Queue: 4 jobs
Job 1
Amino acid sequence: MRFAYEWHDDSGNWFRSYGNENWEFDENGLMVRRFACINDLPIKESERKYIGRLGGVRTTIRGLSELGL
């Protein structure tokens, strides 16, 4: 799976974390193995691509390619 998400630290510095993950599940559907490669990129708040309200439900999901990632 390819992913990206954005977050900020306690000082208000913004980051975009992105990378790849590989998952393996057992016969009951429980994850037994997870391999992840994650990179944190400092960004300006104006460069954010995921804008929404905290706790809100996103009704439109855009893919990483559509967001230029």
Job 2
Amino acid sequence: MARVCQVTGKVPVTGHRVSHSNIKTKRRFLPNLQVKRYYLPEEEKWITLKLSTEGIRTINKRGLYNVVKELRAKGEKI
């Protein structure tokens, strides 16, 4: 999975680069992805996730175990 947040599902989107003379050329807006390692105490193991910064905030808010449980229910291999 390249450039996709595992929690929020954010992917790159396309748009235009606009010059001073208003010439438009294609460009990509990439999500702010980070590779994070978390320790999952319920399973006593480390997991590595590719997350956007919004995904990191989601884990901080809802808890790692709840987020991992939902990802596995969707079929994500973790």
Job 3
Amino acid sequence: MNPPVPVVCAVIEKDGLILLAQRPPNKLLPLKWEFAGGKVEPGEAPAAAIVREIREELGCAIVIERALPPFTHDYGRVVIEMIPFVCSLAPGTTEPHPHEHVALAWAPLDELARYDLAAADFPVIDAYRATR
């Protein structure tokens, strides 16, 4: 059995809202909404990975506020180790825009469940809610 694939995600907060990104139709979990992020490269620290991934995917800079507890999630074809971070936009950065996603949405915490979220993002919401 392969070890879980380390994946980082960012719960980006702004003005009481949280950023969600919609996956492209041609990737795993097509058109699901998620917290932006991606795979940790070999030898890369998770904190460095989330800063890099957000710059690549959303074209903006973030500040890590705190880490949430990591956990594993089994998607069947792949098991991931999700490493979530609560982040804010860096002062003076550009607004996020979708480079690899179909759409972005800012939503209040209480409305996140209305989106068709990727399964691994539900435990992230629970951990975020528990640590606010």
Job 4
Amino acid sequence: MKKELYRDTEKGKVAGVCAGLADYFGWELWLVRIIFISGFLLTGSFFFMAYVIGWFILDKKSDKEIKKSAFAVAADKSKGWVSNLGEDAKVEVKSKVWQAGEPPKQAFKDIHNQFGKLELRLRKLECYVTSSEYQLNREINKL
């Protein structure tokens, strides 16, 4: 799937240029910001001008692209473990420091917590299905 470069104003501080670059390359946002700030301090106006040009040239990431990128992450199993519990249930594991995602230990804890919640829901479901209330409701519905 071809990625496109957009400004991500939801994650961005000023105009979302660094957030868009981080999303495009799959890097951590803080790393891209440090590169831009360091480049600005070391070279002066070049990185500042590049940021301003990116601000004017790049389109904002619309809701359509946000939903599309969320679906692409869910479809791409190599990026991480994805469940159907909702958007907060997505866990992306990073293999290198500059990549976006979570360290493996934190990802394992998140996945463990998610499976714990699923197990509790399954236990409640099993209790209901094996209860006499369920049998009574089933008999009433047959009438």
